[in-house]
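U., I forgot to send this yesterday:
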Amino acid sequence: RLALAEAIVLNLVEKRTESYRKLLEIEKRWPEQDLPYVLAGISAYAANHLEDARRELEKAAALESANPLTYYYLALINSTVNQADRMETLRWAQMAVAGDPTFAQGQALLGRLYRDVGRNEEARKCLEEAVRLEPSLSEAHYLLSRVYSDLGNSERAKIEISESERWHREVGNLSPNQEEIIRLLVQVGPAQK
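Result:
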């Protein structure tokens, strides 16, 4: 756990090469652990190395990772790289939300993907949940405005576009990748006795 925490901290301070080396050591010593693969995948994604990210995250998925970030990032990568296979992308996002229904960014991604395939009622539910869980997700408000517009509810669409603009002006968040890496650090927790 200490080595994994060290790799996470190295990644947060943008010493990705050192972090990656530490992760490789962990992977060799404990190949059955999914967290090093998840972190390596997020790190590769942050560096825009999408194929490396996919490879690392698929290793975690093969280990039947219980970490929703595994499936969230696989869906995110697939929606960018492989738009032809929308059903696989949707399945990854569904697994992320099933793993943690309170993961607002996962709900927002699933809502976007549902909208992309024309499933606006499901998109509405996911996006409403995303903004309920994390009101500052301006993109989720924007997507929700589009869904309301698609559903013919122009009044709600106006409200959501206004919320999107407000949160976009007001919030100066960490990048999503840093937020997720911090979530991993918290999940590592104290060493077991």
